[in-house]
Amino acid sequence: MPARGSQGLVGAALLSVFVSVVGGCSGRDRSGDSRSAPSHDIVCLANADCPPGEVCSAFLDSCLPNCEDPSRTCLAPLQCAVDQTGYYCDDPRPAPSCVGTPVGQAVPFVPSSDIHPSSSPVLHWVIADGCVPVTYESSLASERTALAAAVGAWNSVDCARLCLQGPLESDTRPDFLRGEHGIHVLAPFHPDTLPQLDAGAVGVTTLTFEVLSGRMLGAWIEVPPRAGLSTAEFIALVGYALGLKRPPASVDSALLSGPGSAMTMPTALDREAYCVLYGDPPYCAE
């Protein structure tokens, strides 16, 4: 069941998010930020306040997809379910057994809970669900070359079974709540992002996932139009979207790339972590 936050909200039809920043003054992850990650944030008091195909959740005071509406039916493997928040798309598959980062691994995984990281499922894409689509808004067409190089760099890690598809231009934001999974690169749209960019960050990755299973539903990568990001910066931003976490500064990792970095491939330590997460067998086998 999708859930946001790890304190008192497990079981609610909410999303959880993990935010990673490339660049900026501190260059550190901003994990644990509680912010909604659907295609829009709408506060509501009644169903009439919501767009077609959505219902107002009195529990959340926000609009959620109504999967009983023909236009918002769940995409497989998600199934329509209901709880105190209303109707939502639920993944009926049992949660995999994959917690924490293996001892001695330099590049960490992202836990689904920062409160109990060593006993929480790690974030991951399900390999059996197929290649993860990568799309970008038309306003960011100038970034395509660097983005494509970063996608190709992660796809070249041949010991990993996960694959990325694209990038393709699209001005339609994926509906993660419905099951349209993918990584979407777009211009900044969330109020929390703008101060980070003003402070020097070159991009922000926001992950949407299920708390109880760690399954990734989608990721936004927000970058300013005409930012002119390098391949190295996109390797870091996409790496976060794949479930890898920024390591300590002493680690040789492309996830630490910032302005001026000339890296064109993940490092050996990045590849080692990526292949543990998505190798044969994958860390989160399902």
Structure overview:
The chain is an alpha/beta fold and 286 residues long. The chain has a domain at 95-278: 3-Layer(aba) Sandwich (Collagenase (Catalytic Domain)), CATH 3.40.390.10. It is 14% helix and 20% strand. It is built from 4 helices and 10 strands; from the N terminus they run E-E-E-E-E-E-H-E-E-H-E-E-H-H. The protein has helices spanning 144-155, 193-198, 231-241, 268-278, and strands spanning 16-23, 54-57, 62-65, 79-83, 86-90, 132-136, 164-169, 183-186, 201-209, 216-222. Helix 1 (144-155) crosses helix 3 (231-241). The longest helix has 12 residues, at 144-155. Mean pLDDT is 81; it is low at 1-17 and 24-40.
CATH class division of one domain? Alpha Beta
Work out the helix count.
4
Structural class: alpha/beta
Distance between the termini: 17 Å
Give the CATH superfamily of one domain: Collagenase (Catalytic Domain)
Helix proportion of residues, in percent? Answer: 10-25%
Major sheet size, sense and barrel closure: 6 strands, mixed
Index terms:
six-stranded mixed sheet; alpha/beta; 14% helix; 286 residues; Collagenase (Catalytic Domain); disordered N terminus
Annotate the secondary structure layout.
Layout: E1 16-23, E2 54-57, E3 62-65, E4 79-83, E5 86-90, E6 132-136, H1 144-155, E7 164-169, E8 183-186, H2 193-198, E9 201-209, E10 216-222, H3 231-241, H4 268-278
Parallel strand pairs: 6-7, 6-8, 8-10
Antiparallel strand pairs: 1-9, 2-3, 4-5, 9-10
